[in-house]
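RECORD TYPE: inverse folding
INPUT: structure tokens
STRUCTURE:
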């Protein structure tokens, strides 16, 4: 059987679309929810995913400078999971992980503020 260039291109496009769809499904099938955004030229990623019978909560804040002190508070349905001060590392970022139980609620909030008064807030519904 001889295939024309057009037929080969159509088959290749179909394989690509199917591959993208399968990849997206595999990435989301574990129940992870995430939020990404920007506040005053700082980017964040906030996610919640099932982990060992509970939930893993991750927050990453990419700032503009190393050595900045940020106060970060993460809540699950109003209950505090994380509350404290962190200093940006050599990559000008803060990475936080917390673990909680799924039955403690589905609404997650993070508030981060630095000593200059800059604020970065993110919300996530599981």
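DESIGNED SEQUENCE:
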């Amino acid at each position: 059987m001889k295939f024309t260039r057009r037929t080969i291109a159509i088959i290749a496009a179909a394989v690509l679309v199917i591959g993208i769809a399968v990849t997206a499904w595999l990435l989301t099938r574990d129940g992870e929810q995430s939020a990404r955004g920007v506040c005053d030229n700082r980017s964040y990623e906030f996610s919640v995913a099932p982990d060992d019978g509970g939930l893993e909560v991750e927050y990453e804040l990419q700032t503009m400078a190393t050595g900045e002190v940020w106060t970060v508070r993460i809540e699950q349905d109003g209950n505090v999971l994380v509350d404290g001060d962190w200093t940006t590392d050599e990559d000008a970022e803060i990475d936080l992980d917390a673990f909680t139980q799924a039955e403690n609620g589905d609404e997650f909030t993070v508030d981060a503020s630095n000593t200059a008064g800059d604020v970065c807030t993110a919300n996530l519904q599981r």
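NOTES: The radius of gyration is 20 Å.
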